[in-house]
Specification:
The structure is a single chain. This protein has 119 residues and is α+β, with helices and mostly antiparallel strands. It contains one helix and eight strands; from the N terminus they run αββββββββ. The strands form two sheets. The chain has a four-stranded antiparallel sheet, with no helix packed on it. Strand 4 and strand 5 form a beta hairpin. The longest helix is centred in the N-terminal third of the chain and has 20 residues. The radius of gyration is 17 Å and the shape is globular. About 12% of the residues have low confidence.
Length: 119
């Protein structure tokens, strides 16, 4: 029994450390409205690891539109939903080196956006 607990602890530590390898994308925006009567889900968070952009949902959320843009306009667009809370959606997007912006828009709750670079 002790070895099973040790194994589970080791697996948990490995999974947590994998999430730390990705670079968090700082985002700002307007999320939620004080006038809403129901609870507002937490704003989604974005991170990048190589050519994979990950969107983390703390709470369940449907129909989030994600735009990735460069100086010429939108280069990638998709609509995603979480499959419950504590869910991460990976977007295998391959971009050329350069500067980009990410914009996450929900029709009811608001938006979050930020900038990142691919070297």
């Amino acid at each position: 029994m002790k070895s099973i607990n040790t194994l589970l602890l080791a697996i948990g530590c490995i999974l947590c450390s994998i999430a730390l390898w990705a670079d968090q994308l700082p985002t700002t925006g307007k999320w939620g409205d004080s006038g809403l009567r129901s609870s507002v889900p937490a704003a989604p968070e974005a991170s990048i690891d190589g050519n994979t952009i990950s969107i983390y949902f703390q709470d369940e959320l449907a129909d989030l539109t994600v735009y990735i843009m460069d100086n010429s306009g939108t280069v990638y667009q998709t609509v995603i939903s979480s499959n419950g809370s504590d869910y991460t959606c990976d977007l295998p997007w391959i971009g050329q080196p350069g500067n980009y912006q990410i914009l996450m828009v929900h029709g009811y709750y608001g938006y979050q956006g930020g900038s990142f670079a691919i070297e």
